[in-house]
TrEMBL record:
Protein family according to the UniProt entry: Belongs to the ADIPOR family.
Binding site for Zn(2+): H124, H270, H274
Entry's transmembrane regions: 70-91, 103-126, 142-163, 170-189, 201-221, 233-252, 272-289
The organism of origin for this protein: Alectoria fallacina
Identification of the protein by name: Uncharacterized protein
Topology of this chain in the membrane: Multi-pass membrane protein
Subcellular location: Membrane
Gene Ontology CC entries for this record: membrane
UniProt GO MF annotations: metal ion binding; signaling receptor activity
Domain of life the protein comes from: Eukaryota
Keyword terms: Membrane, Metal-binding, Transmembrane, Transmembrane helix, Zinc
UniProt cross-references to Pfam families, sorted A to Z: HlyIII
Amino acid sequence: MARARKTLTSKEASQTPVTPEWTRRLKSWDEIPSWQQDNEYILSGYRQATGSFKGCFESLAYVHNETVNIYSHVIGAAIFLMSPIYTYRALYLRYPLATQADLFVFSTFFYGVSICFFLSATYHIISGHSPKVQSFGNQLDYLGIVILMWGSTIPSIYYGFYCDPRLQKIYWTNVSILATLCIIATLHPRFRHPTLRPYRAAMYAGLGLSAVVFVVHGILLHGWTVQNRRMSVDWMGVMALFNLTGAVIYAARLPERLQPLKYDIYGSSHQVLHVAVVLAGLAHMLGLFRAFEYLHTNGSVCT
């Protein structure tokens, strides 16, 4: 298949006349500039590069191959933004032993996930603007991932090591330092050089593995039964399974690799990844609810 490699600069994009009829005419893979070409198995449904934020946000009103990516995380962000209301009314008020610390760790989780989904949706909205804006949006997307990973571990550490305040502080400090390093690596221009890619990858891997370390440590200290009640390790496993499944499907470019054109608008690997991440967040939320209930019924007595 012949592929066009002509790039559209920010200046050229901004000088192109932007009208609703023109922007809504979807493009094929061969018609878009190289900076928009990411998945060679998605052959149609591309938005025209406009060099205009107005044009990008107008694309919310019609269907293209980023529509599901955008709205899956807009809906996900809305769910987790509203979840604190349920948590406060259905959980916090029912348990007299609940504290401000519970509100803090749940808020860290809910708003961390919401910010991640909001930044992800923003990236997919503005990705058709220009090369420079697309690159910036990609940074926002990765920033959101770091915030989600950090926000998800804070409450797990709190409930998992409720009876080990020293370990709480150690793991909170470690994960916060790793998250800060990942944010610097994501946003600082110096770390965007291709030669530093292995270091960036190592930082992200370190942040991800930090969760494995404190989970395993807790099980070794207190045993599976106790730690599963405190931390809902089984629900964390469900969360990890959703994330891993989505990542594998995304990396394999399935199902669009098998049937090009069929999944250009609905059902592509990136969309599957987005839905899987939302489901992973919901699984982790259910696990945190159970950990909260255990702590404030019969798990708050430390021996």
